Amino acid sequence: MILLYRIVTFVIYAIVYPYGRWRAWRGDALWQGRLGLIAPHDRTDIWLHAASVGEIRVISYLVACLYSKRPDVSIHVTAMTRAGYRTALATMNERTTITYFPLDVLPVVSKTLSRINPSLIGFAETEIWPNLVLAACRRYVPIVLINGRMSEKAMGRYRLMRSTMRKLLNCYDRFFFKTEQDAGRYEQFLSVDKKSICTVAGDMKFDAPVRCKTPELVGAIREELGVNLDSFVMVAGSTRPGEETALASIYAHLSQKIENLVMVIAPRHLDRLSEIKTMLAEKNIDCSIFGEPDPQGIILVDRMGLLSDLYLAADLAFVGGTLVDIGGHNLLEPVWNGTPVLFGSSTYNVTEAADYIVSGNFGRQVKSVEDLETAIEAVRTGKLTHNIKTDNVGATTPTTIAADYMLARISDA
User: Fold this and answer.
1) Helix (H) or strand (E) holding 312
2) Do domains 17-208+396-412 and 215-381 have the same CATH topology?
3) 298-351 tens-digit pLDDT
4) Beta carbons within 8 Å of 373's beta carbon, 6+ residues apart
5) The domain 17-208+396-412: what is its CATH number?
6) Which of 103, 195, 230, 341 could form a disulfide with 334 if both were Cys (CB 3.0 to 4.6 A apart)?
7) Hey, which residues does 267 pair with through a beta bridge?
């Protein structure tokens, strides 16, 4: 199976090389990384790889933790996608070098390993690249899986190549898994002695830093929003069709009871703004666009990139895709901004986040539109209280567990 993989990847490499080499010569960072045409490093302590935006954000917590524990550590990060690369540039410490992940073909993998020259490699979540894994193993570079996960569907595919998976995974130096279920699925492919290096550390995504919710910052955001400090602001983010209608009905009822109620709606897709405006007009509800002076009625957000700040300035958040059968969007963003969050029962895409929020009392799951209205009023009157997330400074977390191991491992090298 490995031989077949190497033949297929080399054929693909031969086909794309002329175009990729031209793009790299033109300065395209993606193709420079794909072909291993990156600046050589004297030595890199830790090479971390993640696929796209979500995984890059998670390893950014690990990078920050590593620097806090050992400021002189050298770290290189690779991303698979352009969005992930941009996120890495925006979130990583300026001392971190960042490139795109190389093509998993032997000549490129060898060149990349020589240029990065890592003491340790860390793969995030589900990244398994056979040629790189085997090449690193031959060079005695330890490989660590961080925030490891494996779905039932993925395990079904891997069972078809059990011997190959066993050969690859037995090259790893250490595994840190999200859950017991993930660990159990990986262990089916490991030799007996390798099972002892498996650790269920938990999910690193819950280690995101909490933004400081100062009165000055909240006031500045609310000033831009056009509302007073004493207003009760609810921000509904990533809403979907049907949810805006429900929120409009709730606003019509509650605005009669709560004089200073402000509702902000940020739809998941901005091309639906005209549709939402029409719906509000039919319900005789005024609306304004974010940034307009003296806003009236419901405030609609007409641009991307504002949601985190709006959550920070809110008294209460609602995350969409949960009252309708979508499966939920980012439930944790309000939590990291120090704001309690409400969400509906459709959370099959964000089950772990929903459980985390409910167990920590950082928000509440509602069963219906009526339940949502009741919860909003209860929060406003103080009858329903929530915990506010704080940073786990000094605590043992999934991130610190992985960081401590990596730093100890490179010290032993």
Assistant:
1) helix 307-313
2) yes
3) 999 999 889 999 999 999 999 999 999 999 999 999 999 999 999 999 999 999
4) 250, 253, 254
5) 3.40.50.11720
6) 341
7) 239
